Amino acid sequence: MVEALLLLSAEAGWIANQLHASHSPSLLLLLATLSLAVGIQSVSMVRLQIPGIVTTYITGTWTTMLSGLVHLAKHGRPPAEKLELEQRLMLQAAVISAYFLSAVLSGWLFRHHPFVVGAVPALSLFLVAVHGILVG
Question: Full-prediction pTM beyond 0.70?
Fold first, then answer.
């Protein structure tokens, strides 16, 4: 929930910067706020212990997924291990797809609606936090 508040604060600062550059928070302050939010996200993902999923840098997920694909192609695995590896690869592919779609949406928003760019991750994080509270 703290991460959602940080992202919402950064979004408010971004909007203020777009509307009134002279009376807005420093871009360095916005960057620091977002850095703190990404750090919290990284810690959260480590605690979830999902193998091969790295949310703070996409190259880690790409590298792990491609390594798994090569390993699967080179070495025949027993059915139980193969199923587990295939499930992990599908999850990694889904995460990479989400990265790609987020990049496309963010690019479109930057071009057409720059005021709401930060609202997308803040809203999605808020929904995940609410789900976590309701379920867990």
Answer: no
